[in-house]
Design a protein that fits this description.
Length: about 220
Amino acid sequence: MTITISAFAWVPDFAQGNVKDLRPRWALEEAGLPYEVHLLGPDDADGPAYRAWQPFGQVPAYRDDEVELFESGAILLRIAELSEVLRPADRAEAGRVEAWVFAALNSVEPKIDNLVLPPLFHLGEAWVEGQRPHAEALVDKRLKGLADWLNGRDWLTGRFSVADIMMATVLRAIKDHDLLAQHPNLAAYLARCLSRPAFARALEAQLETFRAHEPV
């Protein structure tokens, strides 16, 4: 089976290592599944051909011999289906994995984005500092719930799964933030995820792409 994911050929330094094609790259490395990368140049994401694949011009998009998908959560669940390593053992486990993938995307990531993105894209604007305490409080509420769930657990669903890939890539955005440090078991969980060799391979693959297409 031929698997293809889309990725940007280059992004600015602050985004390198954080673009969301890292998620399927990591899952595919864990699964031991080979894949090809469809690279997007500066204008490609807005072209009609790519919009027919990914309606919003984002990455990643995914295709294999059977399906064509966009949105990283859907892609990770598809990769899990194809992988003897990541495939849930039964419907009960599959339901838990799906729930935690959606939790990472819907309950945790929006709160973290509201904390970390304004200083990146609206630096110096007065409202950014004004909204920070509220944003931090909402993130901390989510981190507390997650830390409570992980108390006594190594992984979200009993064994490492695509739910952990999704949650770890969400939490990476605050890996150096004091809020994460206030929840030691959660910080340890993130470190455990990011110490996996498949993550290192996926991260290097993304960064190598950017190095190879650095603007002259």
